[in-house]
């Protein structure tokens, strides 16, 4: 069932036109849907319009097949978790959690029952009598989540809830939120600028840029088949290595520096007369062995992460990063052998930014089923 | 103890000098109010009373008691009403952005700059036409209206420091316009209320011009009555002084008891806590 549906939704402010432009979107019941994009892309605005905190300039918003454009937030039956938690400082944790139920005049017995369940679930039973200023960041986050959970609304909106937490806590909370969503069967709409959160948490993700949808789909699809240059460079860490490419004399020349011999099969279907950009993922610049080395490149930076090594090369005007598993004894200034092949490259139209041909190795690979 | 530096000594001398300057009139008032009438004279104004005589206080209380009560009936409703209305105005103007809200706020602010004297005549005419002339409720109305600009300003600035997201969270939780006001804004602005209450109390209690034009004789508040407190042939200075002390007492007490909240409230939100 389509739980939340946006049809041609646009948003303009007095000072800024077309912050969001003709957004078409539908979210299924029980889905964990992530809106991801850089700052200013309009993702928070979109979330706030679904919540009812911003007016919808154009288009239709439907929740459970009912048009709700003019319905106030409290009648939309949803809950929201904010970036800085927005807890009520003058109330205790218990009162904070029960605020919504209290205002909606839920019977006391029901309030207490839900409070107990939620406090147990979120591990807040010990903290019920404290005030927000006596809690740590992670504890405050859990209270904000509890406030959302206790309302038992089927739709939960989250606006960058983990941005204010440190990296370790963020990683832990990612798992907690996902488990919670699955357990309660909530439809969750989650806004973030962090593509790692998007990739790890979403059933489907939507990349937004400058108010327009760039791509919607499963995270792994966006990784393997980015629809345009923006999605390609946004998703994936380290960033996808990009470069200008041109076919000439039976060769593919990248950034006027890197020459690759033309593979007829791979080059088929790519228009030779257009301006091309290619992209190759860091993990596809392989360490060169005795028989498959294609190039020798000079290292300009090395990052040892313990489980992997990131090596940066200069390719024309671009900096390319290779990700090699393990700890490699490479230093700045060394010339290392690498193996780069056309079948790992995605081709893009430089003028429109659109994908012409994804990396075929990805196409063959799919996701291995156990 | 180490010797004071020259700078510190100078500072103390200066402070003591100004303290004495400010306390001199207070000294004269208290000392004169405790003297019997025959001891009161310009030549001996600095002299301490020969004996502590509270008879001037007794007389002052007798004469001023009804007017004192008038002041009380005036100040308490006027302060409460102007604070409540100012809070609602401040809430709407800071949290509910509607078209023209900034212009409306500027217009309300202009009210603060209108001199009392310029609107005196139309105000009297209006009060008379609605039958509230020479009544305390009439004076309450005048002070509530006149106090709206300043109370609105104070509350609006206070509420601007409450994060919008908290209001939004309450809206999503299901609170209506008044619900948000009652459950969130008011509890968080107790300090704001104290500041506004102290401010309004002091201003309305001490205010003279409106009081003297809107009310007469029995309905006059204590400040006006104090002016009229003269003997038939000679001025009874000791009674006058006693009256002044009594009239000044409420505001003095307010400041002694609540003064620290005033400063705290004024500075609330100036540093991110």
Round the mean pLDDT of chain A to the nearest integer and report it. 88
The amount of beta strand of chain A, in percent, is 25-35%
Main beta-sheet annotation of chain A: 6 strands, mixed
* CATH class label of the largest domain in chain A: Alpha Beta
- Coarse structural class of chain B: mainly alpha
CATH T-level topology of the largest domain in chain A: Rossmann fold
- Relative helix content of chain B: over 70%
Strand order of the largest sheet of chain A: 6-7-8-3-9-10
Derived structural class of chain A: alpha+beta
GO molecular function (chain A): ABC-type transporter activity; ATP binding; ATP hydrolysis activity
GO biological process, one term (chain A): carbohydrate transport
InterPro entries (chain A): AAA+_ATPase, ABC_transporter-like_ATP-bd, ABC_transporter-like_CS, ABC_transpr_MalK-like, ABC_transpr_MalK/UgpC-like, Mo/tungstate-bd_C_term_dom, NA-bd_OB-fold, OB_MalK-like
Keywords (chain A): ATP-binding, Cell membrane, Membrane, Nucleotide-binding, Translocase, Transport
Give a quick precis of the structure:
Chain A is of the alpha+beta class and 370 residues long. Chain A is built from ten helices and 21 strands. Chain B: Keywords: Membrane, Transmembrane, Transmembrane helix, Transport.
Can you walk through the features of this model?
The complex is a heterodimer of chains A (370) and B (273). By secondary structure, chain A is an alpha+beta fold. Chain A folds into 2 domains: 2-227, 3-Layer(aba) Sandwich (Rossmann fold), CATH 3.40.50.300; 230-365, OB fold (Dihydrolipoamide Acetyltransferase, E2P) (Beta Barrel), CATH 2.40.50.140. In chain A, 26% of the residues lie in helices and 33% in strands. The longest helix of chain A has 18 residues, at 167-184. Chain B has one domain: MetI-like fold, CATH 1.10.3720. Chain B has helices at 6-33, 55-95, 101-110, 120-129, 136-160, 164-173, 177-188, 190-206, 209-214, 222-227, 237-267. The A-B interface holds A 51-53, 72-74, 78-80, 82-84, 86-90, 99-100, 103-104, 147, 151 and B 163, 165-166, 168-176, 179, 183-184, 187-188. Chain A: Keywords: ATP-binding, Cell membrane, Membrane, Nucleotide-binding, Translocase, Transport. Chain A: One of its GO terms (cellular component) is ATP-binding cassette (ABC) transporter complex, substrate-binding subunit-containing. Chain A: Pfam families: ABC_tran (PF00005), OB_MalK (PF17912). Chain A: One of its GO terms (molecular function) is ATP binding.
């Amino acid at each position: 069932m389509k739980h939340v549906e946006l049809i041609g939704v646009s948003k303009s402010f007095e000072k800024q036109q077309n912050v969001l432009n003709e957004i078409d979107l539908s979210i299924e019941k029980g889905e964990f849907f992530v809106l991801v994009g850089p700052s200013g892309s309009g993702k928070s605005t979109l979330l706030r319009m679904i919540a009812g905190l911003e007016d919808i300039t154009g288009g239709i918003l439907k929740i459970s097949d009912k048009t709700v454009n003019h319905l106030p937030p409290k009648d939309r039956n949803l809950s929201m978790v904010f970036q800085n938690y927005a807890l009520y400082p003058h109330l205790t944790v218990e009162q904070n959690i029960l605020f919504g139920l209290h205002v909606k005049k839920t019977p006391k017995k029901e309030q207490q029952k839900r409070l107990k369940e939620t406090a147990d679930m979120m591990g807040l039973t010990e903290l019920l009598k404290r005030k927000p200023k006596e809690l740590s960041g992670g504890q405050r986050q859990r209270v904000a989540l509890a406030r959302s959970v206790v309302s038992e609304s089927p739709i939960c909106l989250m606006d960058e809830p983990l941005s204010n937490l440190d990296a370790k806590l963020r990683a832990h909370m990612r798992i907690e939120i996902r488990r919670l969503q699955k357990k309660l069967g909530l439809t969750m709409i989650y806004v973030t600028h962090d593509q790692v959160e998007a990739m790890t948490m979403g059933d489907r993700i939507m990349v937004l840029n400058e108010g327009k949808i760039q791509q919607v789909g499963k995270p792994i699809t966006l990784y393997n088949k980015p629809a345009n240059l923006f999605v390609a460079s946004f998703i994936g860490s380290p960033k996808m290595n990009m470069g200008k490419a041109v076919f000439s004399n039976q060769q593919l020349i990248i950034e006027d520096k890197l020459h690759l011999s033309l593979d007829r099969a791979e080059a088929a279907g790519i228009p030779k007369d257009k301006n091309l950009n290619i992209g190759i993922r860091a993990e596809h610049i392989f360490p060169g062995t005795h028989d498959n080395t294609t190039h020798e490149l000079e290292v300009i930076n090395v990052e040892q992460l313990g489980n992997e090594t990131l090596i940066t090369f200069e390719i024309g005007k671009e900096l390319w990063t290779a990700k090699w598993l393990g700890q490699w004894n490479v230093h700045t200034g060394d010339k290392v052998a690498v193996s780069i092949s056309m079948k790992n490259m995605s081709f893009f139209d430089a003028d429109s930014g659109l994908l012409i041909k994804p990396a075929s190795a990805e196409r063959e690979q799919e996701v291995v089923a156990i | 103890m180490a010797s004071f530096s020259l700078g510190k000594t100078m500072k103390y001398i200066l402070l003591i000098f100004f303290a004495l300057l400010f306390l001199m009139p207070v000294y004269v008032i208290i000392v004169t109010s405790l003297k019997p009438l025959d001891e009161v004279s310009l030549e001996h104004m600095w002299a301490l009373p020969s004996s502590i005589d509270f008879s001037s206080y007794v007389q002052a209380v007798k004469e001023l008691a009804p007017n004192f009560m008038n002041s009380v009936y005036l100040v308490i409703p006027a302060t409460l009403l102007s604070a409540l209305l100012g809070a609602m105005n401040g809430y709407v103007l800071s949290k509910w952005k509607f078209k023209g809200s900034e212009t409306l706020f500027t217009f309300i602010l202009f009210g603060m700059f209108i001199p009392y004297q310029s609107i005196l005549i139309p105000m009297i005419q209006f009060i008379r036409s609605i039958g509230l002339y020479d009544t305390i409720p009439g004076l309450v109305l005048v002070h509530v209206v006149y106090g709206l600009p300043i109370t609105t300003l104070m509350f609006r600035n206070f509420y601007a420091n409450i994060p919008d997201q908290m209001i939004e969270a309450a809206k999503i939780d299901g609170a209506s316009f008044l619900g948000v006001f009652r459950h969130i804004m008011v509890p968080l602005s107790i300090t704001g209320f104290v500041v506004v209450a102290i401010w309004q109390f002091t201003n309305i209690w001490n205010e003279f011009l409106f009081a003297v034009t809107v009310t007469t004789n029995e309905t006059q508040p204590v400040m006006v009555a104090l002016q009229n407190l003269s003997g038939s042939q000679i001025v009874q200075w000791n009674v006058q002084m006693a009256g002044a002390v009594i009239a000044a007492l409420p505001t003095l007490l307010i400041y002694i008891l609540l003064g620290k909240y005033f400063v705290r409230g004024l500075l609330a939100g100036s540093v991110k806590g």
